[in-house]
Each structure stands twice: as C-alpha cells, then as structure tokens.
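Lecture notes, unit on protein representations.

Consider one protein chain, 93 amino acids long.
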Amino acid sequence: MGKVSARYSTKREKTNMNFEKLGVIIKENAKEVEKTLTAKGYKLQKTSLARGYISRKTAGSLEPYKGIYGEGYKWLLPNYNSNRYMTVEYWCK
C-alpha cells in the first residue's frame, strides 16, 4: 500500500461553535446550534428539501450563505423520511 494523502485524511477538527469555516460538520447538539445562531441575531427564514445526503450521526453541516434570503448560514440537516433528500434551513439576519 502507498502513502495516504493528507487531503484524504479521515480525522475531523472539533468545531467549538466556530461557524466561519465553509462546510463545518456540527457534532454538538442541534438545540445548542439553534441557540447560538439566535443569540448572534440570525433568524430562520426558510426550510426546504434538496437532493443529497447528510449523515444522521451528526447534527448537520453549516455553510456560509449569501443569496435571495439575505446573508447568513445554510444549515444542511439529515432528513429522517428519505435518504435521497436532505433538509436545508436558511438562517439569515
């Protein structure tokens, strides 16, 4: 076997509620993430479904968002009714 590239490392960093990175995997409780977003002044603007899969072992993935609903974060959550679609929540100021 050859060397495994650092690019494909299986280790993940702890987030410590730092949402500034792109595509942060949330390992904390979803309620804590909601409290933190609300405390920072973000409001839930819209919830929708998107094609894709998010593991049910995590509380989702948080990505920066700038679009029609404003500026904020796009929270990708697992959809417990389907494994083809994920739930997307738009948290904007």
